[in-house]
Every structure is written in structure tokens, then in C-alpha cells.
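Retro notes - structure team

What went well: the batch runner handled both jobs without manual restarts.
What didn't: labels got mixed up in the shared folder, which is why I'm recording both outputs here explicitly, each with its sequence directly above its C-alpha cells.

Job 1
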Amino acid sequence: MREDVLGRANVEDSPELDRYYNELGQQESYALWTVANSIEPWQPKPSSLPQLWSYQAMRPLVLKALDLVSPEKAGRRVIALENPGRKGTSACVGWLYTGLQVMKPGESASAHSHASSALRFIIEGKNAYTVVDGHKMDLNAGDFVITPNGTWHDHGVEASGETTIWQDGLDMLMVNQLDANFYAVHPETVQKSNYPLNDTAQVFGGPGLLPAGGEAWSKPYSPLFKYEWGRTYETLTRAAQATDGSPYDGIMMQYVNPATGGPVMKTLGAHIQLLRGGERTKAHRHTGSIVYTVAKGKGYSIIEGKRYDWNKSDIFVVPSWAWHEHANASERDDAVLFSFSDLPSMQALGLYREETFADNDGHQKLAH
């Protein structure tokens, strides 16, 4: 790709150069100027496309898997969401993976660990649980759970529970690109829980309080493995009474490692945001890919000039450097969006950049 711009590659083709390129190819090499403009774009040009997956359409397909495969045979009974612009990569956006996992009462999945960082957002169900490095916690709709890289983890649904569906999110595709992934199955298949139920939430989940002395935490991820929906939503609604929030994201909170104030894991971060009744945010864009799940309410988002209407439990993605804004479709009730992203990776590598929309009202025009 040639560009007639000073400082960019602009070499004309010729028979002599074609012969030269062929000689280079025989030595497993190439001339940089033949690809330089493509591999060093002026700005991010993601192949990922904005996409929305309707939970109403996906739910029956996810439940159908209950009768077709067992968790023992499948390893994990998960329906993965793949971006139409990234076919064959298993990516939902950028190098992020997400899928919908389903388990019925009395089922459990074997314990394992991997170099990838993982998280889950509970969409529906009752009396599910997960165990992370021996810490067992119960799971309910709206709860957010992390399984940091290198930790043993397994999960299931108690016999007294209900069929549960949760959203998985992992950075494994990025870790694979770095040729750094590992996977191991627990030698005893199922972990023994060595702590009281929900102990990390009880010890580290206090409002503005951290344990001193013997309970100090030094690991590079949050000790608060579970972030409960009730406390999270209460925090959002209280904040909405005290602040206008961000013109680009409404009332937005970051799930944090209480020991450091930083993201919950080194490579993956998560946020929760509330849109008041009738609220519409202004448009902005930034580096980093985002996966949104509608935790409450209904509304729409405009991504790169196209409107995407969403309802509770729908999942949609915003590619890196894509203009986006959100709106609550209800005038009375609030709407809440959960999201996870690779923003901690962007920030750690010094690659984060943000830009606001410069139109007079800060909103995108819909593409026709």
C-alpha cells in the first residue's frame, strides 16, 4: 500500500523489484517498505466490528446444550460469541473472549488453572458456586467473580439450586498471542474448600476498610474474588444522588482491588455504570476493547454511527478506537451496564489514548 506522504512508503513496482522481492522470499525475508504503511497505521484500524448478541435469541440455544452435551465430556458447556470481523479467532472483540456457560442443579465442573485471567458475570440462576484457591463463594444474578491467572478454580450448582447461566470473559487469546499460556487439571479434580463460605467478601468487602496485620494481601490481583450485585447497585444509586457523573459514561464505577485501588487483575478490568432515566451520554472513543452486558433496564448505544438497541442480559461490544455513546430508553427507571475490557493492559503498556467527539452537541450522526 503506497502513500504519497513524506515519511511514508511510496515505492513504485518494477520488474526488477519483483525479482528482488522473490529473492528475499526465498530467504524467508521481505522488504519492509512493501507493508510498512499497513502495519504502522495512522490510527487503530481494528478488524473487530460492533456487534450485539440478543439474550432472548441466545438463551434457548444455550439451554439446548444441556440435553446435547455433559460438562464432563465438554469440559465446559459454553456457547462462545465470535465477532463477525474476527471469524476463526474465537474473539468477541479485539483479543477478548466471551461466552455463555450453563449448568443445571447438581452439576459440577472439574477444577483447573491456566495462565489466562478470567471472570464471570452471573446472568440468571440460584445456588451456584465457585471455588478459587480453596475459597468457596455462592453466586447469584448480577454478581461479578474473578478467577485470576494461576489460581485453581472450579464451579457448579447445588442440587437445591436452579439452572444457572453466566458470562465468561478471558484474556486467553492475548496470552496465546504472547505464547505464554499454560493449562493444568487439578490432581484431585475437585478442590476442598478450606475457608468459611464467602470469606473473602466478609474480610475484604467492608466499606473503606482493609484488614491489618495477619490478613495483609500481597498477590497481584484482588483478594475480593466476588463483587456482590446488591452492594454494587446500592453504591451506584447512592452515587447518582450525589454526583452528575461523567458526560460520556454516566455514573460509572470501576471494580477495584481493595488492597491497591487498581484493577481487579493485571490484564483485565471491569466497570459498572448507571444511566439515569432518560439519560444519554456524549460520544467518545479510546484504545482498548470493551464487552458490555446489560445488567438492568433497556436502551441503546450508538457505535460508529450505527444504533444498537439493547435489553436486559444482551451483550454487545465496542472495538478499540470506535466512537460510542449510550442512552437509557426509560424516562423513569435507571439502566445499568456491566463491562469488562483490556484497559489495564493498555494502561500498563502506555498505549491508552482517549478522544471526545467534537460535534457541537457531542453526539454522532446516525449512518444511513
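Job 2
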Amino acid sequence: MKVLLVDDDPAILEVLRAYLQGAGFSVLEAQDGEEALLLFPQADLVVLDLMLPKVDGWRVAEAIRGERPELPILMLTARGEEEERVRGLELGADDYVVKPFSPKEVVARIKALLRRAGLKEELTYGPLRLLPRKREACLAGEPLPLSRLEFDLLLTLAQHPGMVFSRERLLEKVWGPDFPGVDRVVDVHIAGLRKKLGDDPDNPRFIETVRGVGYRFKEANAPFP
């Protein structure tokens, strides 16, 4: 697997290159946004700093999402403010690490993103069809207008029919371990998902409430082969 490192700090490139090559990855490097735009078509994953010369990381992320929406992006930023992380995620970054960071953590997050990127092309649950790579969902042949978080939440549940997820576990998997959220966030997004799925909470086809615990995707909806 080929990882593109994009950062204008040679020391960061050197450290990450060593750790990634030690983990068995091939490495491409860019020290500015223009180089990144030339190299990302060759990559299986991009580690992207936001504060870059020539072309900033925001514009690089937009270009990647426009041409290769399936390409995983791990965002690096020296800014710890929530709004910066949110903006990056809304632009299509799949995960983020705030500087200073542990190189081992970066490698672990890269491996996790590549595992997720290896999802099946299509999953079918009765009238519900999920396309993980394209991040699309259809119900009875009609596209479902899901937000990024709604899609991730639905996919997390649907990949494990019958498994009960606590609200805390869903927050960790969908919003991330550092998200300062509360259980109510999950409930609000589940309610939105049910509305778009036409799911009656009292007699759901897809998402069941397990009182006092959390939610699960109905086991009867095991994916069709």
C-alpha cells in the first residue's frame, strides 16, 4: 500500500517515513500543496497537513474528494480548536491527528483507515442498499440523502446485524474517541436516520432500540449475498 505524506516540515516527513516503511508501506512525499495535487492519484491513502505553502490543505482535500472520493485522508493539524477539526471533517477528511502526535498512533490510524477502505463494494439488506466506497445509500431504489455522520452510523450498525451498540460505543466509532459528546447526540442522529428510512421506532424494519443499552440493526436484515 502506498501512503502520500504531505507536510512542509522535513523532520515530520522523515519520522513518519521511517515508521511507515518499518510497517511495510511504500511512501510518497510532498512538501507543498502543488506537489500533493500531482501525487495523490498514485496513493492509497493521504496524510495531509492543512497549513501548506502554494496550495493549502483545505484546497488539496477538496481536489481529492472531487476526483477520488474513496481515497482515505488522515488530516494533520497543529490547531486543536474544534472548529478546525470539524471543517476538515466536513471537507471529507476521514480522521485527524493534532500535532504534536505519536508516530505509532499515526501508523495505527492509517491501518484502521485502510481496513475501512477495504469494505465490500455493496451491501444489501432487503430494500436497503449501501455502497460503502461511494458512501451512498438507497432505499427501494431511491437515493437516501444521508449526512456523513448518518451514513457512518447506519453503516456501523448494518455491518453487525444483531449486535447491540451502546451509545458510548457508537460515539467512539462514529464521532471519534476524542469527541466531547453526550448520549443525546446519538439519539438525535438515530431519530433522523429512522425518519429517512421510514422506520417506525415501535415496529422498526432496520434499527431497534435496546432499552437501557443502545441500538442494534435487526438481525433479520442479515446482508444478502
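One thing worth noting from job 2: The chain has eight helices and twelve strands.
We'll revisit the folder naming next retro.
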